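Reviewers asked in the last cycle whether our approach scales beyond single polypeptides. To address this, we selected a multi-component target totalling 684 residues and predicted its structure end to end. The input consisted of the following lines:
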Amino acid sequence: MSRPLRRARAVDVAARAGVSVATVSFVVNGKAEGRVSPATRLRVLDAIAALGYVTDASARALATGRRRQVALLAHDMTNPFTAQVAAGAAAGIAEATEGTGHLLLLLAAGLAEPDVEPVGAATVDGVLINYPGTLPAGRPDLPVVHLDDPAAGGHQVSLDVAVGARELAGHLADLGHRHVLYLDGNRPWSTFVERRAAFAAEFAARVPGAVVADDRCDIDLGSALDLATRRSADWRRSGATVVVAATDVQALGVLAGLHAAGVAVPAQLSVAGFDDIPFAAVSAPPLTTVALPARELGHRGAVLLAGVIEDPDAPVGAPTVLPARLVVRGSTGPPATVTLSA
Amino acid sequence: MSRPLRRARAVDVAARAGVSVATVSFVVNGKAEGRVSPATRLRVLDAIAALGYVTDASARALATGRRRQVALLAHDMTNPFTAQVAAGAAAGIAEATEGTGHLLLLLAAGLAEPDVEPVGAATVDGVLINYPGTLPAGRPDLPVVHLDDPAAGGHQVSLDVAVGARELAGHLADLGHRHVLYLDGNRPWSTFVERRAAFAAEFAARVPGAVVADDRCDIDLGSALDLATRRSADWRRSGATVVVAATDVQALGVLAGLHAAGVAVPAQLSVAGFDDIPFAAVSAPPLTTVALPARELGHRGAVLLAGVIEDPDAPVGAPTVLPARLVVRGSTGPPATVTLSA
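The resulting structure, written as structure tokens, was:
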């Protein structure tokens, strides 16, 4: 029972099983029910296994152990930062696996938890994780690359968010701000911890009597819009002259909420964010933000993942850290000199 | 050689093939190379086929003919409209196939053509097409649902873009505009043809001596920004007092380009779009646009596709057409009374 040297075809399977090619086709295309008897179907499956017949991607995956898919676990594909990471990852995986046709499976779930079942069910060869803490269960050997999660071990591509946060702190200190409302994302992710810690430390070092107060909300435009509409009077009454948001979608939501509440930006309250999504350049006013290279993050991560899939025993190298830089636009200005009365 | 009534386990495969469970594991996980002889590997594969052993998604797919994946063919996942369609489709496919674990594979390629190889290679059970004209080759029987492509035959979910376009034409006519620069997408898609035709017909019916001039560019923010920066003086010199873009990303790019060129919106030139992506509400100025329900488009399409996958012979019903409506914001106003001098 030796395997033929040339690749088996459906006609070979049919000959071995003593059936027609049409019968083989019914079986491999899942159309045997009502057309092919169970006994005949088993003969065909025996022949398929014996000949190593590769019918399509599923059969190829079974024969080779390769699924030719990688997954990107992400938070919310409607966040333009995530969409850019995904676009970069799709380009990177196509480039790095040229000829093998690896595909990107996007696992994102809006504000809910992503469904990681396909990772556990072994439909992928590796995973890019841009959703810290979402570890695929039950597959400890699965190749994984962490994106923008500086606290993660293992293979990772990160962003120099601390450098960007310090530049932003310096910019606001130079403008004369002393009291910041820091609007964090309501996820305990290391990239957010690092952004806030670096910003607060630099701001405190630059500004005598600096205050960095906290608020937090979901990482989307609507949640920040609602929060800013409700809370902006409190923020200003407390003495805050600038809102720094952990992400641009939150910062843009704050801009919309302040507009709804009749608060002028930056005359009465400055606003800044992190990411530099394309829409940050066309907001009202255009947003001062720490630019993070989302597309390159996804691209580099995918190329790294392809390498780990090829050689799972490759040692973990030093993390790739991509640069961040401050982009100053119209949403930040000198602090308002008059505090809003209650 | 009958199949056991209970589901076969790895231990059953091992017993039939006369090998250890570890050997079965090596074979099904693609780690046989260097560990399991070719003859033994074949015995294991024979046993797998004979027992109907279901190891993981790939094997299950081979046994059932189901891949438990559907694809969304789309233009550019960084366009928030597409991202919303994808989010809706992911939710819809999860909801409609509860318990079967269908996943959404996103095939989008920025401004290039998407790679439809996985569709041809049968890694999916069906396809949502939001990229008109991209037909998967070689699988004429594959379940397909067309999204926002009114000229497509077969199963489809569409948007009432004509109603929205007429509302926009009426709004601009009421403001006193007579000369429109219509910035189309540079793709010959039926939804764009329908938007433009309905707009132009309604505008002509409302405004004596109406002029609707054309320009076009790629469907992204940067392309429209470049075009508006270069061409806005020509547009105004020709007499246009408003730019209507076929998509919001183009309209937002025009806003940024007009800002760069020093053209005041809407005082010197009004701007409007189609889609109502979330960022249209926070642009400078906020964008007047025809709201199209992207998330519901994806959701309804996925539910329909799941039904077609379940029953491929189901008759094609009347197309679902989701409503569009005009949202008036600050980017449209009365026409400038003084024409720019050359």
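The longest strand of chain B covers residues 179-185. We regard this as preliminary and will revisit it once experimental data from Aim 1 are available.
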